[in-house]
Design goal:
mainly alpha; Growth Hormone, Chain: A; 2 domains; MFS_dom; transport; transmembrane; fructose transmembrane transporter activity
Length: 456
């Protein structure tokens, strides 16, 4: 692991994964102010305010439309990377965030809730874009690096949402549009790094450019072995027929691998983690936490999730994938059940509000230690190159669709089921943990053939 390789990984995560985390949590703190803006604008337009049901529907759409944009962006990644390269695709997608920041930043001045919704969808489109890969022997550590920045993004959104910073009513448009700052920095600093060596050699046949890039990223003058390896990879790619999504779904030789990708990626979002991030303040309010303490309690949970993410990042190569994802989902399931119990008993036992806070912390910590990043690593490690692009499309599409579903229906689920709504997520977490325990093998340091034999 060289300094330039680590630097470009941090830079890409800073301007991509961190923005994803920021946009997950940024709608939590100003929810009340955004709803008030929607209601006031509607009243000025039509002479009457919005009823609670339609207002909740409009706000839920604002929250969840981010995921629909992400779905579209994830489906466009392959085309953009093939045409512009990884560096070029990232630079071009950065302009989307600048556009989205303008929409959201000026929405109140122009009295347009539609601009907030459009801005959220554009930031989702950006978040569906790609990140730079890493060398195979470092994929566990660097593969979880984006999840650390997702946690940092959530944490920064929680800190900026404090009343002393951007948490006041007059600042919420600025709060939503802060995303332009890290994107602008990424756009400027990406020019200091060359294009991906693999793209230069395989897609553009630029041996000289690939050699210079490898010199920088690997920190060694002797890169001929790596060049030779990539040329062999290029020849093997040209002789391999890539599977479509439809072919993948009907290929019986990888049916268990495909089912595993579906289970872990859908389970990651249906675990309820997005409900926790999107509606943290509402959950704490229902748990009986005093309103003045809620922003600071939320920041505390964010700090703990960053620590948990770092633990997962630095232990994945030692402990393996299975222990982290099984432990993470089990911890989340237990804590989700704990939230239900604490909400049911808080009227008779006031100290149960602190149990609810502890359970929220446990859910976030459990998620960041394993389920946050391991499913993406497993998707790469369960398939050969011929099946892998289709597997990523399946996993990524499910991820974004489930993200949208939870963000949209959670307020209504909470209104109809009350404290028992968390038991739905509890069941999902425990079932996914059981599936991983019974079906999915440890993939650390195993070849695809070894993994295939285990599945067979």
């Amino acid at each position: 692991l060289t300094f330039p390789l680590l630097s470009v990984t941090l830079l890409v995560s800073f301007g991509s994964s961190m923005l994803y985390g920021y946009n997950l949590a940024v709608v939590n703190s100003p929810a009340m102010h955004i709803k008030a803006f929607y209601n006031a604008t509607w009243s000025r337009r039509y002479g009457h305010g919005l009823a609670p049901g339609p207002l909740t529907l409009l706000y839920s759409l604002t929250v969840s439309i981010f995921a629909l944009g992400g779905l579209v962006g994830s489906l466009l990644v392959g085309v953009l990377v093939e045409r512009y390269g990884r560096n070029g695709a990232l630079s071009r997608s950065a302009f989307l965030v600048l556009l989205a920041g303008g929409f959201m930043g000026f929405s109140r001045e122009l009295e347009s809730p539609e601009m907030v919704i459009v801005g959220r969808s554009i930031t989702g489109l950006h978040s569906g874009r790609c990140c730079l890969g890493c060398r195979a022997n470092l994929r566990g550590f660097l593969g979880l690096m984006p999840s650390i920045f997702i946690c940092l993004g959530v944490f920064f959104a929680q800190v900026l949402g404090l009343p002393e910073l951007l948490g006041e009513e007059r600042f919420w448009p600025l709060f939503l549009s802060v995303v332009v700052v890290p994107t602008s920095l990424q756009l400027l600093l990406l020019r200091c790094f060359p294009e991906s060596p693999r793209y230069l050699l395989i897609e553009r046949n630029d041996v000289c450019g690939a050699t210079k890039a490898l010199h920088l990223f690997l920190g060694t003058p002797n890169v001929q072995d790596v060049i030779k390896e990539m040329k062999e990879e290029q020849r093997s790619f040209s002789s391999v027929e890539m599977f479509s999504v439809w072919q993948l779904l009907w290929d019986r030789s990888v049916r268990w691998q495909t089912l595993s990708v579906v289970v872990v990626n859908a389970g990651m979002q249906l675990s309820g983690i997005d409900a926790i991030w999107f509606y943290t303040n509402t959950i704490f309010e229902n748990a009986g936490i005093p309103p003045s303490q809620i922003p600071y309690t939320t920041v505390g949970t964010g700090a703990i999730e960053v620590v948990a993410g770092l633990i997962g990042c630095f232990t994945i190569e030692k402990l393996g994938r299975r222990p982290l994802i099984i432990t993470g989902f089990c911890a989340m399931g237990i804590c989700l059940a704990g939230i239900t119990v604490s909400l049911l008993l808080q009227t008779t036992l006031p100290w149960m509000r602190y149990v609810a806070v502890a359970c929220v912390v446990g859910i976030i910590a459990g998620f960041c230690m394993g389920p946050a990043g391991v499913p993406f690593l497993m998707t790469a490690e369960l398939f050969t190159q011929s099946h892998r692009p289709a597997a990523y499309i399946v996993g990524g599409s499910l991820n974004w669709l489930c993200n949208f579903t939870i963000g949209f229906i959670f307020p209504f689920l909470q209104m109809s089921a009350g404290a028992f709504c968390y038991l739905v997520f509890c069941g999902v977490c425990l079932l996914v943990a059981l599936y991983v325990y019974l079906v999915i093998p440890e993939t650390k340091n195993k070849t695809f053939m070894e993994i295939s034999h285990i599945f067979a």
